[in-house]
Amino acid sequence: MYKKMIWTTILVLAIVSTLVFCSGLMSSLKITSAANTNNVVKSNIDTSTQSKPVVELNNNSYNILVMGDSLAKGTGDEKGQGFANDFVSLWKTRANKDIKVTNIAVNGDTSSGLVKILQNEQTLKYVENSKIIFVSIGGNEIKTLQSADVSSVSTDVKTLQDNYLNNLKSIFKSIRSRNKNSIIVFIGLYNPFEKGTISDKTVLLNDWNYQTEQLVSQDSNCIFIPTYDLFRYNLDKYLSADNFHPNAAGYDAISKRIFDALKNYGD
Amino acid sequence: MLKLIENEVLKMLCKKKLLLISGILLILISLFAYGENHSYMNTIKRFTQTTGQTQNYDWKSLVNQQITDLKSRLNSPYNKDSSKNSTNIKIEQLQYYLDHNMNPITPNAAKFTIKFMQQAVLLFLPLLVIVLAGDSVSGEFSTKTIKVLLTRAVPRWKILLSKYISLLIMTSLVVLEAAVISIIVSTVMFHTGGWNEPVATGFRSVAGKLDASNVVKVYQWQYSILVYGLGWFAAITVVTISFMVSVLVRNTATSIGIMMATLIGGEFLQLFLEDWPLVKYFFVINLNLPKYLTGSFQPIEGMSLIFSIIVLCVWSIVALAVSFRVFTKQDVLV
Predict the structure, then answer these.
(1) Crossing angle for the helix pair B252-272 and B124-133, nearest 10 degrees?
(2) Which residue(s) pair with B206 in the sheet?
(3) Are A20 and B204 within 8 A, CB to CB?
(4) For residue range A167-183, what is the model confidence (pLDDT) as tens digits?
(5) Which residue pairs, CB below 8 angstroms and at least 24 apart, start in B148-154?
(6) pTM
(7) What residues contact B32, with CB distance under 8 A and at least 6 apart?
(8) Which residue in A18, A66, B101, B290 has the fewest CB atoms around it within 10 Å?
């Protein structure tokens, strides 16, 4: 009798669980092989990206625009701030209005990418209403030289640099075409690979920074903020875990330097 | 026929194997749950330390942090292409969870139960069911009871079929038991069920990119049924193949040993021969069915759930055919 009961429970349990598992198997087959049946989600996304209206920044707030590469974006900052937001917390006392930061930086962007972004009507609208414009670009271009060997570099670097400077020129032209009065703050490059760099490459980076500063200073309301010296002996303290981007302390140091430079800038 | 099956099931129960398996399951699942809880606490501790946030942390910022970590790992030059792809997919999945406000971090009973099966299906569950099936026929030879069994007035194929069906019954019970035990243990451990939380499934990885166009949201309890269904199917295949081995070999130890070597060797095979396309027709490679639901990266090109299930089916059918052919034809000299 006891054995009979065990047998029946086992049989019932086995049959029920088999049925449940089979249904699970069938539905997982259905889910993984569903051939684009629910395209609804996809098409929704498509329409939302297509008809994005051009947003105009509110003139009642103090607008700061950040554009360029991952450094501008704030990549590597554990607090997710980036130098722009760090700067804002310092600048707060200076601005009599609310400060609004618009960050349109793209991770891994190069100068030619930024030129394209500046052709966008939305970007130009942002430019128009911003009081301070931060630009950080070029790091991803010069990064490619790091791995190249010295002999081939000298020819490559010329074309790369000319291309970069031309792009920079047109970036400034685009900005000034919409906004004559705002101050442009250009963030110079530092060398994240300091320890493994031979002096030839250091010369290369210094030249890059120098050429950039020369070009930038042709604009009367633009300031070049060097970071090379800032990071030179502080790499261990200022770089994030990827050994390329600054960490929170690094961004903090950059923002402090910017603030020092602009301390007595009046508008 | 039913009588025969009943007889076989009772035989297995008498050997106290189910009890042994339950014991193993209980101990290991408790350990896993403890470890899971511990590592979760560690993650939170580390996170709150680095960000300086106190107690009430937000899972969203934690996910954000994980995404940033993965991205910076992606930038490292010492990275193989294949691992880059899988990192990419992981990032996109986390981003999907973030965008859709689903919490993938905090452990609860549902998540643990699912995760357990996802891990167990590779080696743990197959090993358990091998213990069940390993001596099904060979045990009769070892203990010389095969003579008694075969002198009954039933055709040989019926005897073998009853053995096979009783094995299927036991396998279903083991999978069910694994589910029940992990539900109980994890509910005790994490206090929260979370069975009605949504979970996204149907991700597909196409050429290293995540295709989220087919993603469906299901509840955790539905998802766990899906995962356990797949685990059950994998277990059935292993049982069938190990049943064949047990028919071919006349010694229980040998039969279990062969199956274990095959399973563990299969795992190695995946590591060493991932460039060799023929490897995907080996059944051990195809056992990890639940991973198709999460859309994780496929190490070998051209594998999908349907492909894997077909491969497993073919292996099962061949194994059954071989066992029946051999068992009905062979001479029994005991």
Answers:
(1) 160
(2) B209
(3) no
(4) 999 999 889 988 888 89
(5) B150/B332, B154/B4
(6) 0.59
(7) B112, B116
(8) B101
Quote the distance between the C-alpha of residue A28 and its chain's center.
Answer: 39
**Looking at CA atoms only, how far is residue B295 from chain A in angstroms?**
9
Cα separation, B49 vs B40, whole angstroms: 14
| Continuous segment of H or E residues that includes residue A238 | helix A235-238
CB-CB neighbors (< 8 A) of B170 in chain A: 14
Closest residue in chain A to residue B218, using alpha carbons only = A31
The continuous run of DSSP H or E covering A103 comes out as strand A99-103
Question: Are the C-beta atoms of residues B103 and B197 closer than 8 Å to each other?
Answer: yes
Q: A-chain residues within 8 Å CB-CB of B75? A: 242, 244
Which of B265, B263, B295 has the alpha carbon at shortest distance from B118?
B295
Mean pLDDT of A75-83: 81
3-state secondary structure B48-84: HHHHCCCCCCCHHHHHHHHHHHHHHHHHCCCCCHHHH
Q: Mind listing the pLDDT tens digit for each residue in A16-68?
A: 988 998 888 888 888 776 644 433 333 333 333 334 456 677 777 888 899 98
pLDDT over 70 (residue B212): no
- pLDDT at res. B27: 92
CA distance A11 to chain B (A): 7
User: A105 CA to chain B: closest CA distance, Å?
Assistant: 16
Chain B residues in contact with A21 (beta carbon < 8 A) = 172, 175, 225, 228-229, 232-233
Residues in chain B: 334
B-chain CB neighbours of A6 within 8 Å are 10, 13
Q: What is the ipTM of this complex?
A: 0.74
Question: For chain A, what are the domain ranges?
Answer: 61-262
Rounded distance between C-alpha atoms, residue A14 and residue A118, angstroms:
66
The DSSP result for B178-227, as a single string, is HHHHHHHHHHHHH----TTSEEEE--EEETTEEE-TT-EEEEHHHHHHHH
Report, at the CATH architecture level, how domain A61-262 is classified. 3-Layer(aba) Sandwich (3.40)
